[in-house]
Amino acid sequence: MDSPFEAKRVCGQVTPSEAAPLGIKVAIVEPGGFRTDFAGSSTELSEGHPEYDSTVGATARFQRNYNGRQPGDPKKAAQAIVKLTQERNPPLRLLLGSDAYAAAEKNDLARLEEARIWKKLSLSTDFETK
């Protein structure tokens, strides 16, 4: 797994199959950027030590500059989540926002391309068939 977020994502896939016999539906909401106070005055952003300027510093600057320019409307996100709760067959994952969709698409396509490149080695680990 690439990150703790990936671990959460994989764990989220197990839960729906376990909850379904109980009549419980599970959906993972993956939001993009929304114009809330998340990256505003409610958050203290520090650029950290100079050694981390290209990582932590860059992330802090991005958040600071992105605040107030996020494409997502929180009211529309709330409406989408309410609609999701009313669905008979909700998706396992719901991406909220154009930025979330674009990032997921880019990530998934890159992951598929990498898997294709390494397909031969991946498949080489099966038992030999007769």
Please count the beta strands (DSSP E, at least 2 residues each): 2
Give the structural class. Answer: mainly alpha
**Poorly predicted ranges:** none
Strand order of the largest sheet: 1-2
Separate helix tally: 5
Mean pLDDT comes to 87
Along the chain, the helix and strand elements come as HEHHEHH
Instruction: Please bin the fraction of helical residues.
Output: 40-55%
- Strand % is 5-15%
Q: Can you summarize the main beta sheet?
A: 2 strands, parallel
What's the Cα radius of gyration? 19 Å
| Mass-distribution shape | flat
- Measure the end-to-end span: 33 Å
- Oligomeric state of this protein: single chain
Structure keywords:
130 residues; mainly alpha; two-stranded parallel sheet; 52% helix
Q: What does this entry look like structurally?
A:
This protein has 130 residues and is mostly helical. The chain has a domain of 86 residues. The protein is built from five helices and two strands. A two-stranded parallel sheet has the order 1-2. The longest helix is centred in the C-terminal third of the chain and has 20 residues. The two termini are 33 Å apart.
